[in-house]
Design goal:
By secondary structure, the protein is α+β, with helices and mostly antiparallel strands. It contains 12 helices and 10 strands. Helix content is 61%, strand content 14%. Strands 1-2-3-4-5-6-7-8-9-10 form a 10-stranded antiparallel β-sheet.
Length: 325
């Protein structure tokens, strides 16, 4: 791997990444979505989400060509209903326990609710990744996720248990090991991904933030955010036809400081209506500061992935407040 890293640094082929979205355009889409979601008492939400994702994807470019999100409101609505059904069952069990006069019934119901939610999280992540990647393409080349649901669930639950018994100390290794499993199963046509970050490095980033945040009156938090972003991005390798490339983020602490301060003012002075400008400004910064270093050639991508249209866990992940890692 040392030879690979050295080779990467001396390679100068850099397909560009860019985000071309505008806050005003995105606002036009979102305001209609909000109104229709309110009028339909929330039933329009899947179509709203599909339209927002379609806009964000087509404004994201690699080597001058835009990505496409093929997911539809209909697909996501079916998933939305399934997700509501699963959550309704879990909360039904919870309220049965809450209303029961038996302590034993309460205990069984509460444990069932807790374990059910805990198991649901990795299942939702897996399902979301399968759907979202399959419905994403670039120049007709689809992405894909080849992870195994059972394997991922065992990994997630085992890592979560270790985090609990170590009173949170193991959380950095938990995060990194989950990322390794997820990213290692991502495909972009015939390109494969690999994550090489280590839990110990992430742990040190957290420790630095713990000791530096208070003495700097919180200012270090912007550099902490920069360290996290660069750690998550810079450890991603891309393997294509036996050749390796890697992502390289050059976002600085000052970049984060400026971005956050301006975004905060936008949200405050627009009473939240400026959220779309916050999203587009953030994506523009991150992608404009990210490069692909190495021999990755998007023109050599070949179709290898199949379509997957089950969106059940796409909206379930939203309900559980889970984002793509």
């Amino acid at each position: 791997m040392q030879e690979t890293s050295t080779e990467l640094e001396t390679t100068h082929s850099k397909p560009t990444l860019a985000f071309k979205g505008q806050g005003s355009e995105f606002f036009g889409i979102q305001i209609v979505n909000v109104l229709l979601t309110l009028v339909t008492l929330g039933l329009y939400y899947p179509w709203a989400k599909a339209k927002e994702l379609q806009y964000l994807y087509r404004k994201t470019e690699l080597a001058g060509s835009a990505f496409t999100f093929h997911g539809t409101g209909k697909e996501m609505f079916i998933g939305f209903i399934k997700g509501l059904g699963i959550l309704a069952v879990l909360y039904g069990v919870f309220f049965i326990g809450f209303a029961s006069g038996s302590n034993m019934v309460k205990l069984v119901c509460f444990l069932t609710f807790f374990v059910g939610f805990l198991v649901l999280i990795p299942i939702a992540i897996h399902g979301m990744l399968r759907y979202r990647t399959s419905r994403t393409s670039w120049r007709g080349i689809h992405m894909g996720y080849r992870g195994n649901a059972t394997k991922f669930m065992k990994l997630y639950l085992g890592q979560f248990l270790l985090t609990i018994v170590t009173f949170g100390i193991y959380a950095s290794w938990f995060t990194v090991n989950v990322r390794k499993e997820i990213i290692g199963n991502l495909r972009f046509g015939n390109a494969k991904f690999k994550y090489i970050g280590e839990g110990s490095d992430l742990f040190l980033i957290h420790v630095k933030a713990y000791f530096f945040t208070l003495p700097t009156l919180g200012i270090y938090l912007f550099w902490y955010a920069k360290e996290l972003l660069n750690f998550y991005v810079n450890n991603i390798l891309i393997e294509q036809n036996g050749k390796y490339s890697r992502l390289d983020s050059e976002v600085t602490g000052m970049d984060y400081l400026k971005l956050t301060v301006v975004n905060l003012f936008i949200l405050i002075f627009t009473l939240g209506f400026g959220y779309t400008w916050v999203v587009t400004r953030t994506m523009n910064l991150i992608l404009s500061k990210c490069e692909i270093i190495g021999e990755f050639n998007p023109d050599e991508l070949e179709q290898t992935e199949e379509e997957y249209k089950n969106a059940a866990y796409e909206d379930m992940a939203d309900m559980l407040d889970i984002g793509i890692v």
